[in-house]
Design a protein that fits this description.
Layout: E1 6-11, H1 16-31, E2 39-45, H2 51-65, H3 71-78, E3 81-85, H4 91-108, E4 114-118, H5 125-134, E5 143-147, H6 155-166, E6 174-176, H7 184-187, H8 189-194, H9 197-200, E7 208-216, H10 225-229, H11 232-250, H12 259-270, H13 278-284, E8 286-290, E9 314-319, E10 331-336, E11 343-350, E12 364-370, E13 374-382, E14 389-397, H14 400-405, H15 409-418, H16 428-450, E15 456-458
Parallel strand pairs: 1-2, 1-4, 2-3, 4-5, 5-6, 7-10, 8-15
Antiparallel strand pairs: 7-11, 8-9, 9-10, 11-12, 12-13, 13-14
Bound molecules: nicotinamide-adenine-dinucleotide.
Nicotinamide-adenine-dinucleotide binds near residues 14, 17 and 148.
Length: about 475
């Protein structure tokens, strides 16, 4: 593998994301030789850490995520890490950061290449981007920026942030990360759709009745109540992960597999995204909030959550497009906290057509993303000793060995940043459409709040509020996974 020379600057280097995801992922890339002799990382955060302390943290992070570690490699890897105590709002600190980056550039011969990673609270993204520009932190080689979610909290703030970032970075150098796009089964959607005529030929609005995307979490908000109050399920999960999954399911076939063609196909689809009316939102969207139990808090009792909070911890809704193979086909989605089990899955429900055998079972294609990786297709066959049709599943469950080979989403996506492949990152044109849709729902819900309509309450560890069973367009539709 090619050794890519680069200095990477991580804003938020003492945070949870850096520790649990970025350092272990970088170690794996280091072991594979993608980054090796000519790379260094500057981790910045407010705490007064030393280089040595940071290196200890990096080592701990690798040990916590790897069952076996080559200690010599790890020590050598950690020696490439440097710590810079830094307050992102302080101009002078950017000077120090710039000087350190230049010094490391010389020491590691990294050819003036820089990757900036924004791994801190989103309210700082704009400030950091502005300082990178004003204090001239970009260098003479490539300059790429990785931006964590959420990218804005509505279209207006996302536009403002985008303006701040594009002052220093071209669109092609901005990597808006959505770790769902690094998941194996999400990356499997296009190959599954496009490479098998049995599937490819039915992937259209003539044969598909609806699609159902479920991203269910078993956990509640835990210690993140304060953040969640500013977000809610719609912004936290739908605006990014659910929309990206839906886009892959509904986009037209790209002309080839280059990043450019894939983003063009996505854009073609998204330009036809239907923005639902107030009436449609009332009929096809449900928001909910989890209640407590004998042993758990309800959402409104969680720390840092308002006692009369209207923030939704569950949302179900519908997305439709005017163009693409699924033009007009309902794509339903659901996501929530404190649901029955952690399960991310997609159910593609085929239309039921009349036939000589009378009633046959509905046929579905199901992709399970997490926690196991599985694809199954339901088929109909004859009952053995009586008349009638029985249902069977054709299933492919990834073996443990295969699952072990799958890199973590962050490793995959960081690798893509290093090799400059933006296929699995969100482009601005996509994001704009997603926010437009989300803003419309938020606006209607805001009106509902003012009229005294509250989110539906739901019991913990079930499948969300009962009202979510009534969002369908026709009475014959229902959640396949219930
Ligand atoms: P965190 O609170 O654990 O870490 C925040 C970091 O920012 C810390 O290093 C802190 O010292 C630093 N910081 C805060 N204020 C600062 C200031 N004024 N100047 C300099 N540094 C300052 O947050 P996190 O969980 O690591 O999340 C970081 C980003 O990653 C967020 O955008 C989050 O949405 C995103 N993200 C996190 C995860 C995860 O698993 N933690 C997953 C997906 C996305």
């Amino acid at each position: 593998m090619k050794n890519i020379p680069v200095i990477m600057i991580i804003f938020g280097g003492s945070g949870d994301l850096a520790h649990r995801k970025l350092y272990p992922a970088l170690f794996n890339l280091y072991e594979q030789g993608l980054i090796h002799d000519n790379f260094a990382v500057i981790a910045t955060a407010r705490r007064p850490w030393s280089h040595e302390y940071l290196r200890g943290q990096v080592s701990d992070a690798v040990h916590e995520t790897h069952s076996e570690v080559n200690e010599n490699n790890l020590a050598e890897f950690a020696s490439h890490f440097y710590y810079q105590s830094h307050d992102v709002t302080n101009v002078e600190h950017y000077e120090t950061l710039k000087n350190l980056a230049q010094e490391l550039d010389d020491r590691y011969s990294s050819q003036g290449n820089r990757i900036f990673y924004m791994a801190m609270a989103p309210r700082f993204f704009g400030t950091i981007a502005e300082h990178i520009n004003d204090q001239h932190l970009t260098s003479t080689g490539f300059n790429r920026i990785v931006v964590e979610k959420p990218f804005g909290r509505d279209l207006t703030s996302a536009e403002e942030l985008n303006k701040q970032i594009t002052a220093s970075f071209a669109e092609d150098d901005i990597f808006r990360i959505d770790h769902y796009l690094g998941k194996e089964m999400v990356q499997n959607i296009l190959p599954l759709r496009l490479t098998n005529p049995l599937i490819k030929n039915v992937w259209n609005n003539e044969n598909i009745k609806n699609i159902q995307v479920t991203l269910a979490e078993r956990l509640g908000v835990e210690a993140r109540g304060g953040y969640y109050e500013t977000s809610g399920a719609l912004r936290d999960m739908v605006q990014n992960h659910i929309f990206q999954i839906i886009t892959l399911l509904a986009m037209p076939e790209p002309k080839d597999l280059t990043s450019k063609s894939i983003h063009e196909a996505k854009q073609e689809l998204l330009s036809s995204l239907v923005i639902p009316s107030e009436k449609e939102i009332a009929a096809h969207f449900v928001r909910g909030q989890y209640l407590g139990s004998d042993v758990t808090f309800g959402y409104r009792q969680e720390p840092n959550v308002a006692a009369d909070s209207q923030t939704e911890t569950f949302v179900a809704g519908e997305v439709k497009f005017k163009k693409g193979p699924l033009a007009g086909t309902p794509i339903y989605f659901r996501t929530g906290k404190e649901m029955r089990e952690k399960k991310n899955r997609i159910d593609i429900v085929l239309k039921h057509k009349s036939n000589q055998y009378g009633r046959a079972h509905s046929n579905n294609i199901t992709i399970i993303i997490d926690p196991q990786m599985q694809i199954f297709i339901t088929i109909n066959g004859k009952k053995i000793n009586e008349s009638g049709i029985r249902r069977e599943d054709l299933s492919y469950l990834f073996s443990q060995e295969e699952q072990n080979q799958v890199p973590d989403g962050y490793e995959r996506l960081l690798h893509d940043v290093f090799i400059n492949d933006s296929t699995n990152f969100t482009h601005w044109s996509e994001l704009k459409n997603y926010w437009h849709f989300i803003d419309q729902i938020e606006e209607v819900w805001q009106k509902e709040n003012e009229q005294g309509h509250e989110p539906e309450q739901y019991l913990p560890y079930r499948m969300g509020p009962k009202a979510a069973n009534k969002i369908f367009e026709t009475p014959t539709e229902r959640w396949i996974y219930d």
